[in-house]
Amino acid sequence: MNEPKVQVGILFESKIEFSFPTPYVINGKKIVGMQTAVYNNGKILWLNNLYDELVFEPIDETKDEFELKEVTIGINFHWERKENQRFQGSLKIIVEDKKLTGINVIGVEDYLTSVISSEMSATASLELLKA
């Protein structure tokens, strides 16, 4: 049985910069290194071509990661800032409201593990951390 996937919106900008430390695949072609996608009149401009959406798939879902540049974290909190963040799974880029949305497509188990661990405190009891 295939594990269900969730799509998590990470970034909403007119330009998305991202990189693949290891090759990812799109339309049967391997892509590696730094990339930039730009909103252009209702389309995504990437490598001098226009697209409705882009979906980059990892070759090895258990190891491969992509990095999104300048992700805003802590939105509307006093510690709001931008930082580069790495994600496992696929990267999907779509057009929404005259901008681009960067989406992490990931297995539900991996997603839940990352959410739970990100909400844990280092001062939590050992029993809570084990659960």
UniProtKB/TrEMBL annotation:
InterPro entries membership: SpoIID/LytB_N
A Pfam family: SpoIID
The Sporulation stage II protein D amidase enhancer LytB N-terminal domain, residue ranges: 97-131
This protein's name: Sporulation stage II protein D amidase enhancer LytB N-terminal domain-containing protein
